[in-house]
Amino acid sequence: MRPLRYERPADAATAVATVHDNPDAVFLASGTNLVDHLKIGVATPGMLVDISHLPLDSVESTADGGLRIGANVRNSTLAVHPDVRRNYPMLTRALLSGASPQLRNAATTGGNLLQRTRCVYFRDVSTPCNKREPGSGCSALGGYTRYHAVLGASEDCVATHPSDMAVAMLALDAEVLVLGPDGECTVPLEEFYRLPGDRPDLDTTLDRDELVVGVHLPPPQTTVATYRKVRDRASYAFALVSVAAELTVSGGTITGCRIAFGGVAHRPWRAHRTEAALLGERPGEDLFARAADAELVDARALDGNAFKIPLLRRTLAAVLRDLAGFHDEGVSA
Predict the structure, then answer these.
(1) Of 14, 8, 9, 1, whose CA–CA distance to 181 is shortest?
(2) Local confidence band at 261 (pLDDT 50, 70, 90 cut-offs)
């Protein structure tokens, strides 16, 4: 049996120092992801540093009109928070699309952001996986690829990031609040995640001794926004594709939009090319198709997931059609 030490630090700074001083230590929040991986031998730390009791469980308004969300806020709590439901409806929809009610009651904001980008081969210790054992190979290439990436993949990894919440937060220009040995810093969520390249074992830009303590959401730009997830079954399934989008239309012209995709890349994917194609144009089916194609020009399908490209194109068009219609009707999504 592998020995496993357990520490319960009194504060966040002590937690960071403990992980910094112990190379085999990892942070533990609710454990919905980590404990699973401990059980099957995917994760093999020597020490768990429990941060689940730390006072990082509040949702507070900020001076700029945004929100600060503590890392230990539960997904179910955040989904129904009045400020989130009123001002960030796409985030509520994304949270309620994730996992099962039981898991949402346990999972935390910080833990959700930090769950491993993975596929079925990552969880199967009998198969080669560059994320689990760098340099061993990628079993998905030539294998089962229904859920795998069509954007941003590499020859070393084609897994997709599983979070729904992170896709909505990316579209909302969220910033991650991080505490490290040298103090606290802020990391834009778009810079928080890495593409696989030749180091797919590294999911984020964090050092191992840096702790997520919260998330800052800037002031809302519009409440005409939504999150749509397409999956194989209605509950407890990762996205085949998902779209988080908000749209502002003034005088019949799109004057603002923020869009992110899920289920298609190693990290939540900000659709900058789509946004650029939409701005300044009149909403319409031809425009929506061109905007999707602008983002998908570099998409590369595998043998088992070519359907994702037209599926994402249709899902994006449907979401934009709905949001444009809400403007016409004068109501919020």
Answers:
(1) 14
(2) very high
**pLDDT, tens digit, for every residue of 287-326?**
999 999 999 999 999 999 999 999 999 999 999 999 999 7
Measured distance CA(28)–CA(286) in Å, rounded: 48
Cβ neighbors of 71 (< 8 A, separation 6 or more) are 29, 51, 56, 108, 109, 110, 111, 177, 211, 212, 213, 214, 215
Here the tokens at position 17 are 């120092």
Distance (Å, whole) CA 125 – CA 133: 10
Q: Are 27 and 47 in contact (CB under 8 A)?
A: no
| Cβ atoms of residues 110 and 95 within 8 Å | no
How does DSSP classify residue 108? B
User: Residues 41-74: pLDDT tens digits?
Assistant: 999 999 999 999 999 999 999 999 999 999 999 9
- CB-CB contact of 77 with 211 (8 Å): no
CA distances from 120 to 42, 138, 264 (A): 12, 11, 16
Half-sphere exposure in the Cβ direction for 297 (13 Å, CA): 10
Paired tokens of 212: 């997520």
Q: Helices 285-296 & 308-329, crossing angle to 10 degrees?
A: 140
Tokens representing 27?
């942070």
Write out 206-234 in H/E/C secondary structure.
CCCCCEEEEEEECCCCCCCEEEEEECCCC
Distance between CA 147 and CA 238 in Å, rounded?
8
CA 10-11-15 angle, 5° bins: 95
